Amino acid sequence: MKLTICMPLLAASVMICAPAVAQDAKAGRATASAQCAVCHGPNGIAQMPTAANLAGQQELYLAKALEDFRSGKRENEMMTVIAKGLSNSDVANLAAWYSSIQVTVQPPP
Fold it and tell me: What is the pTM of this model?
C-alpha cells in the first residue's frame, strides 16, 4: 500500500524538478546578447543601477522569474514586455546561460 502511494509522488516530484525544455547555454548567450545585454550587461553584470545582476544566479530561479514576468505574476515595465516575447526554449536557454557564468566573491579585508 505504501509503495502504491509513494511511487506516483516520487514520479511527480521528479517531473516538477526536471526542466520542461532542454537548455542550450550557447543559444541563451545569443538571445542575451540581442535582448538582455543593454540592461544586464554582456556577461550578466548589470549596466544600469535599476537592473539585476544575472550572472551566476540559480537556473531554476532565473527560469521562474522569467516565467513570472511573462505571465504577469511578477511585474516590471521593461521585463514584462521582454519576457512576453520569449518562448519556453528562450527562457530555458537564458537561464542556462546566466547560471553558467562563474562569479567569484571576495570578502572585504
Answer: 0.78
